[in-house]
C-alpha cells in the first residue's frame, strides 16, 4: 500500500514537471514570436516612412513644375497683350497721320484752285461746299475801300414758301429746331473759312431771309473784320 502511494506521488510529480515545462516552453515561444513581430514592424515602419517621403517629394516636384508652367503661360499671355497694344497704337498713329495728310491735301487743293482761278466764284463755292437742304444762297457784295477786299452778305433763302413759314415760325417761337442749328453752324463755318480760302473776300454777315424776302434774321456777323485780322 505504501509502495503504491509512492508510485502515485512520483507519477504526480513527473506530470507536474512535464506540465510546468510545457507552459514554460509555450511562454518562451510567445515571447519569441512577439519579439519577431516587433522587429518586423520596426523594419516595415522605416520602409513606409521612406515611401511617404518619396511621395511627398514627387508631389512637390509636380507642384514646382506646374508653377513654372503657369508662370510661362502668364508671361506668354502678357507678351501677346503687349504686342497687340503696340500694334493698335501703331495703327492709330498711322490712321491719325493719314487723316492729317488727307486734310492737308484737301486744304492745299482748295488753295491751288483759288490760285489757279483768280475769279473765285463765291456763289458756286457756297452751293457746292455749304449745301443746306431745301435752301439756296443769294449774295450781295460791295468793295471795302479801307481793306481793299470784297465784302459779302450771304443770305440763306428757302426753296418753297411752305418751308419758309416753318423755319420762320421756329425762329419766332425760339424752338430748338435741328434745321436752325444746321444753318447757324454752317454760317459760322463759312464766315471763318471763306476768307482763308480766298484772302480777297470777307464775309460781313450770314442771314436767314424768308421766301417773300419780307423778314430776315442775322445768324452771324463780322463787322469788326475779326476773321481777317
TrEMBL record:
Q: Which UniProt keywords apply?
A: Signal
Q: Which spans does this entry mark as compositional bias, Basic and acidic residues? A: 50-70
Q: Does the keyword Signal apply?
A: yes
Signal peptide (from-to): 1-21
Query: What domain of life does the native source organism fall in?
Result: Bacteria
* Disordered: region residues: 28-70
Per its record, how is this protein called by name? YusW-like protein
Q: Which organism is it from?
A: Terribacillus saccharophilus
